[in-house]
Amino acid sequence: MREERLGILCSGRGSNLASIMEAVERGEIPAEIAVVIADKSEAYALERARAKGIPAVAVIYQDYAQRADFERAMLDELHAHGVTLVILAGFMRILSPVFVHAYTGRILNIHPALLPSFPGAHAHRDALAYGVKVSGCTVHFVDEGMDSGPVILQAVVPVMEDDTENTLAARVLEQEHRIFPEAIKLYVEGRLRTVGRKVHILPVVGGGLL
User: Which residues are catalytic?
Assistant: First the structure.
């Protein structure tokens, strides 16, 4: 099994980043976090990474005339750090097909809803407005669409009668912190096989893969 080098893209405070860093430190994810990239200089995710001695780079969207230039700068950083697997941990920009093709089948994202329901930036608001009784989160491979790639893992939480976007988000976030590291672990261990839209999780038998 080769050692994967993770490149983690963030836009905000980096709570999912923190859960991934902790799982790596505990040895649960047999990989190295090679670099953390944020699209905002004030993103607290950068401070989290630097506190752990992990290279942290701000590639600021507004500094580039075109999205293609912004994405090329991110790809240059990923390649410079030898990244083999890209993790979108609260990264709030849609990636172009050019970026996705550079890491085809090697980009994982977490979305705060049970895809294919409620894609996009307002998942909690949309779930509450629809009146669903359960919500949750989804780890999926990234393809050229918006939150449309093959599903790896999902977790379900109840929706309470008095939920607000904030209370629902907090309940979902607890599950994000649980299943995102698990999905990364499965990938790094070579236990994911994608056939069409289905992601099969291979069992471990007798100390090796079946």
Answer: 111
